[in-house]
Amino acid sequence: MGALAFPAVFTLPFPRHVMIMIFLYGALATAWNIIAGYCGQIALGQAVFFGIGAYTSSLLYTRVGLTPWAGMIGGVILAVLVSQVVGYPVFRLRGHYFAIATIAVGEIVQALIINWDAIGGGRGVFLPIKRPDSFLNFQFHTSKAYYYYIALGLLLLALGITRWIEGSRRGYYFRAIREDQDAAAALGVNVAREKLRALAISAGLTAMGGSFWAQYLLFIDPESVFPLSLSILICLVAVLGGVGTLWGPLLGAAVLVPLQEGTRVMLGGTGKAIDLLIYGALIIVISVAQPGGLMGLFGVSRGAGSAR
Amino acid sequence: MTRLLEARGLDVLLGDYQVLWEARCAVAAGEIVALLGPNGAGKSTLMNSLSGLLRPRAGDVLFDGHAITGLPAHRRVSQGISHVLERRRLFPYLTVRQNVWLGAYAREARADRETQYQKMIELFPIISARANQLAHTLSGGEQQMVALARGLMSRPRLLMIDEPFLGLAPLIVEQLVEVIRRVNQDGVTILFIEQNVERALSIASRGYILESGRTILDGPSSELLHSAEVRRIFLGG
Amino acid sequence: MHRFATSLLAVFLVFAIVAAAPSGAVAQSKEIVIGVLYPMTGPTAQAGVDNKPVIEIGTDIANGVTDLPFPFYQKLKGMPGLKGAKIRLVFADHQGKPELGQAEAERLITQEKVHAIVGCWHSGVTATASQVAERHGIPFLNPESSSPGLHRRGLKWFFRTSPHDEHFTQAMFDFFRDFEKKRGVKIKTAGLTYDGTLFGADSGKIMKELAKKSGVDVTLDLQYKLQSTSLQSEVQRLKAANPDVWMPTSYQTDAILFVRTAKELDYNAKMVMAQDAGHISPDFVQAVGRDAEGTMSRAPFNTDLIDKRPVAKALNALYTKKHGKELYDFPARSFTGYMTLLDAINRAGSTDPEQIRQALVATNIPGDQLIMTWDGIKFDENGQNTHVKAIIIQLQGGKFYTVWPWDSATRDVIYPIPAWKDRK
Amino acid sequence: MGFVYALIAAGLSLIFGLMEIVNFAHGEFLMVAMYVAFFAWALLKLDPLVSLPLAALLLGTLGFTVYHGIIRRVLDGPMLAQIFATFGLAVLLRSAAQFLFGVDFRTVSQPLLAGRVALGPVFIGVPQLAASVAALAAFVGLFLFLSRSETGLALQATAQDRHAAALMGIDTQRMFALGWAIGSACVGVAGGLLAMFFYIFPDVGTPFALLAYVTVALGGFGNVPATLAGGVLVGLVEAFGGLYLTPALKYSAVFALYLGVVLWRPQGLFGRF
Amino acid sequence: MSLLSVTGITKTFGGVMANREISFDVKPGELVGVIGPNGAGKSTLFDLITGFQRPDAGRVTFDGHDVTGWRPDRISHLGVGRTFQKLKPFAGMTALENVMVGAFQKTSDVAEARAAAMTALEQVGLGERAEAHARGLSTGQRKRLELARALATRPRLLLLDEVTGGVDQATVPGLIRLVRELHATGLALIVIEHNMRVIMEISERVVALQLGQVIADASPAEIVRDRRVIDAYLGETWRE
User: Fold this and answer.
1) A136 inside 8 A of chain C by CB
2) Taking CB atoms and an 8 Å cutoff, what residues of chain B touch E215?
3) Residues E12 and E112 in one domain
4) Domains contained in chain C, CATH given
5) D169 vs B109: CB contact, 8 Å cut-off?
6) What is the pLDDT of residues D40-88, one digit of tens each?
7) With 0-12 CB in 10 A as exposed, 13-18 as middle and 19+ as buried, what is D9?
8) What pTM was estimated for this model as a whole?
9) What ipTM was reported for this prediction?
10) CB distance from C134 to chain A under 8 Å?
């Protein structure tokens, strides 16, 4: 496995950082793929779960002293709970009404967090640096390799869950719902319940990504972990690679993250936004030329067309 | 008898699915012709290919001797083909008057718009009675009349009507039949789709019968009316 | 699938090779490499775009290309401590995003092999980027972020030359007290407006704490959303509460909209005391300068001091020539921080991080050599400059003038601010 | 503000009604319009109010170009590809603006109209009032165009039944392009009006676009007159939310209103499907 | 004891009465045909029985349970399967996967579901196309696919909406044979069909609808002689 050996070959932190970002965004997009790609529900509020994950583990760590690993699990639980409470009414909507409703939920949650003084409000949370490196504290300052492997683990977990879903009854139900809700219901699929389950899985994985992020950056605030732009970026990564396929979201991350980092590194210091100019143009070109996502280039096509 | 419209060898796909196989039909100027066949036989698909809403994968459509196979729908209107879709398909949130008025949107038809509109009011008094009502508030029969008027506004040479009597009460059906005859007498050739065999053949002079995407039978109404084959197709036994 | 996996691996590898290669030449001992990390794109890109030229001027001074004829700067000419080593700058863009700040800091340190980092303007980005520097043991000089929490994280490698919001806010209340004495007016109630960012929320919090200490009653406490599409209701509420002083904390966007809305809704604040940022940016002054007449702000620097301070005047000439703009608060702070770093490197006589750090700790720059009105630069154990001094400035006739402390003042305070109907 | 929101949203609604595409670059169109107004003022000394036709024209051209250059090519693609394409366009326009105009905040100072009027205890700024009136007028104009003119009727017809419209002799492709042009022109007018009192910079469109999506969905996608109601409602909730809640939550109030409405009526207030 | 009993159900869409006080029963193992011209309300009737629409009035009882207003999936679990007039294949999934969705109602084991689905596919004669994507199948094959999907849920009552509509002439006899075979296994069926020949051939009883009302409920032999039915379909001269 090339991915495992990568840190040994590339000892510089920056390529490792890019790989970590690829893994993280790959995992987030894979999580989104479960609800959107397989289950066909185009939710644009993933940042809510990401933020919940980040805040739960961070607050449990700074206030209670709980290891971020346990906090991560706490975040997953909370995110799943929130996903069920929010999902239940919102899943009644279809199409653009649904997508906009998820955006609305995301914006409301972000505003509430900003105004919630007890958890720092707009000031966010600083996580204290603890030395030496400790697995328990989820902090590694001497080498990025640890973060690398944790992110890789997260990605593999997301891919594994997706793989498992693909191969189980659940996956068949999800895809049936994406293709035709009525036909699925006629075959005895409890559409509302399955959608909630898909969202729960997606939310849980996304929350883990949030906890990882908080430990990686050691600083979180509502602007950086709850923004709409994150929800949209997650969606873009998956769509770019190809939704409804196991590897598509990862491929999207593997292309988009280096592209973003690369153009910024090479052109970003000019203050002229040339990097974003190229980035925007590329997105348009890809969506016109390869509307089913880059996976189409490999002859793998999944019915993105039916995810309407 | 000159052939106003002729279609031959039409293979038509809807999405990935083939619906017509070498379908054909021909209409002479001045005729009333019925397209018959059970549900799903491909009647509407055939008509949509004639009006240009669908592009056949193979085959030709000729109008007045010219090939129009590749022409988009809006250009065929200018040539004199009018098509009233199944279930009327009025613009639901436009008024009756606006609906009818739009029937003469094509450049060629605009000059005579006012006179043609007056003619339509004569033919369908309902139009002036309901002129400012939104189309979706009309009853089925009223909608069908407005749809016919809209279709006639472009002063077509060929009027194609998809299931004009669908879901209508017998009294309304009779009125409509009367109108269709009058329109025909005014020189408009008519092709229509109908499920009720006898009703269809009592209006039409000839009929085509489609089954499972193929034209399997055609002939004068009197012949078809007593055909055992027709009975087999529609009633079984 | 196999073909796919192979291709994916290929993409990774090609990328990794590209990313691993340092973009510049390999660092030589004769070169001092400094990473400059600012927002160059995004909503606050102006800060980075305006700071870049002043950093370049500072570099030119040290590299002997440009002359600033004052002892402190002469001393740095040609970096004698390192026997004429040349300074090379590496600029990076963080777009105002903490995660990019972290990534770029990491890249600067490990790939560009910078010996020190200057940045990042946004407090949130400074927070993450400085942690990276801490991990790698690279000096991080922060010339401008004002979030008070930043220097309290127990970082060894973090140095801040600028005052932070507590200093600044304290100055406001000190001013109120002085002003009450001087003019015999009462400033008893305050109305606060601030946005939900780290900067806004911090400022709001400190203002409330200090108001309590100083016996000022906060009668209106409004947090609003960054980049609001309308601020009508906010201004209506200010108008209804009508506090003795309105104390806004805003970025440029909302600051501009606040003034315009206040004008439209005829809100006549008697006194406006802003927390820097948006309210003193050139955009703000250019856009609504006349309408914002009488707006006061805390600041570490003001353009009218340029004429009072020869150092500032000389630098301003260079800056205007290079960038076509007058020197103002952001580049002034950026320059001060940057030169402090260069001074430390020069004294360290080495690019070794630990030696630079020790030199920074020992920094003691006298106030008269600065373009700022501070008492000088000297760091405490947290890396915070203790010799800072904030000034209070006021917009008069479309320009900011220093009005406090009284001894630095170039103009007298306008109070109360004339009502809209009485203007012009 | 409600009327301005409504006008911004009207363009979005029109485009959606025609071809069920949500233009995620709508906010950037608004930004471009504001720059048009600004440069007309800065270079030609034209007040935004005077340069409105110019803004409308240029934006209309932009919309037309975007339709033919991009949208037509993804029209038959999956919904996600459409979102993706317009999102890319948003990034492109925003960064192009920064590339060309820089990041400075621009404002049109000393507009033709200034001051305020008192309506009882409430003051309204004259520019805002003028913007509202002009937005309302533009809206009425749009409405009249759609319901009275031949082309407007053809547009409506295309939106309501694309196939039936084609059978009237209406070139639906042309109508789509026209829809983009007109929808964008609406944003052009709205941008020109906003420029009278709002600051201008490359990222200015985003918060407005977000409100526009909510406005459109609130009224019901594709129903242009209902967008007006949606816009006014959003404006009111924003204003009263700001007055009686903490202002930080006033947009949350708008979003909550949207959620409440669509959960009660999944097709929006006046949705037609 | 009837398996399904429909009592006085009425459904109105925007002023149009699609179903008007429809009542009829289906006994276990019975095969009932439903006929009527386009727009007579046949598909609405199916939607009301299977829970896709909620009746304005009236009751639907299946196997002793009052299922009026139940969700479709619950009704499916009780043993009511259906196909749709407007075909609703899971286009992006293979034929086998389509049918497995149905089979999962009785098992959560993938291998078991696959086996059951394969059996159902073979039953409808689609065994060879198991791995083909549903969007690549012909209309007739998709009809069979929907049938197999419904069969895989092991229903006790199967509602077939237009079995032969739009299907290649050549495949009609095969479909008829299939329906007969299913009936022979003891399954109760309600079949909407336009092809009168087919309906007469297979039905034990025929319910005729017109304009939302039941106009006849009798044996096929009686139906072809029913004046109102002939009027509705062929016209008066066909009366014998």
Assistant:
1) no
2) none
3) no
4) 24-163+306-377 (3.40.50.2300), 166-299+391-422 (3.40.50.2300)
5) yes
6) 988 888 888 888 899 999 999 999 999 999 988 888 777 778 888 898 8
7) buried
8) 0.86
9) 0.84
10) yes
